[in-house]
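Archive transcription. Copying these from loose printouts into the bound notebook so they stop getting lost. Printout 1 of 2:
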Amino acid sequence: MKESGLKKMELLRRRFGEWLAATNYAARTREEYDRSVRDFVEWLGRETDVESVTEALPQHLHQYQLALCHAKAVDDGRMLSVSTQAKTLAAIKTWFEWMVAEQMLAFNPASGLRMPKVPRSLPRNVLTQEEARMLLESTPIEEPRDVRDRAMLEVLYGSGVRREELLSLTIYDADLVQGSLRIELGKGRQTRIVPLTQSAIAALKLYLEEARPRWASEAGKTTLFVSSRSGRALSDNDLLRIVRKAANRAGIRKHITPHTLRHYVSCRTMSRKTCPESRDPLQERLWLGRAFNFTRHSLNPFGASMRVDVPGIGWAVPMTCIARINGLIGD
């Protein structure tokens, strides 16, 4: 592909990113789509003789799909997972759909792509009650930084929010009187209210009184959890480091991430029959998510055989049939 053709595709890619932002796609999704489209454009210029995106044909898309099947990840050299392949192809399909909608293309060459079937598996590293307790108690509260870390762990443990949701919280999202968090930028860009445990409320109050004022001194800074060095919002890597540091302190040998605590919350919630801090069935259902997906696998780290009354359905489901709750153990 000539230099002029590459520049034109680069411009289209940037305009596509602007459209994703204008249509309120999440920042992480925009980054993934941009990377997927960039990789495809580079492959198209390297492996084919097309001079413009208008010359892209369905066979080029099928060839790229085959190339993804044999591609290896840059970081660890392993073959790309089926999930990664599916996400990449979904981004490219959206890119072509956008160009057709903008009347840049007469037809969508990616419309005939058959997406790979992604296997649905259960989480491998689910914490037990004892491990979850050790994870929290291993983090002291003597130093301001430890106070912040303990508060973040307590919120993850007590509410089951996603990592992006936790990092995007502001001081106005935490209602310590009502004992709840307001999630403004949840999955699907939907707002919801999630309850907090009493220990999470206490940890947040201590953090807001003794730790956060030391770092977030600039006016207008409303991010809830901030860096002890810059006073700015923490990153994904910062949160991952905090969780793994706590796991090491607790002597937990499992592969622990922030999402591991989310899986634990779902198991704990279903084992208690009601959501923490809630006795209203309607509130429970809204907190868990309105759709329930069941698979015939056991996901009971508590070692007990039980039946759970599912809110809004009216009948009991064996614990061994409950493996996934939409909106609670989502991606």
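Printout 2 of 2:
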Amino acid sequence: MRATLKFLAAGLTAAGVVALAGPATATTDPNDLSPANQELFTTDHLTSISGPTKLTYDFEKKGSLEKGFKDEIEAEVTDSATPGRKDIRFHFLTGDHFMEFPPYRSVKGNPVPILFLERDVQQMERLTGGSALYFRGRILNALAGSAEVKPVTFTYDGKSYEGREIRIEPYLHVDLIDRFPRFEHKLYTFVVSKDIPGGFYRVSAMTPGSSPDAPLTEESITFHGMTKLDAKHAEKKASAAGSGGEDAAALSDPPHEDKSAK
């Protein structure tokens, strides 16, 4: 399955992708963006990473609506030709679940939540018969307006970490949700921390079910670990991929938030 970066084209990542896009497209002051968009899209998540590095995330799907599965996501991070920036190639899931994304060039932020949300809206379209554009728009509006951002403490590898948690319910009390009532209370949660390589500890989307411990749908990615890569191996793989496909960063529009759409 090939998935284009429709979030970039639709404007969700453009709302806060100053750090993901190249310098030439960063026309909006990041301080004009909502706190949620700043946490997710304009923070330099990759500042602690030096040299070729692989970030690994555990993916899990569960819930009563469909059969679940576990998989993994790998992000290969290398130094960009632009000082202070990175190039990133993703291996997003495996086998029948694999989604192909073009590489990100010369970025400062970690695109992993963008890819998670792109999969999510495609699944929402499949499950409801609604439009992925509609679901993207609701997520955009929630991140720009009603998102809750608060400090959080979490445990990773037996140690306690401090971070920030962003929560949105993008389909709560919105137009047309009566067509998809089961998903009105779907909750998206992002846990970010400067102490976790790549900046993101966990991203999840959960639709409540018949009881708190039995969700209708739930998908999540959780940071698993970091591995240093051999420089020659990383250069060879980057060179092989560099001649084909569009760069993800090249698809982005100038950042903006649609304040009138809230």
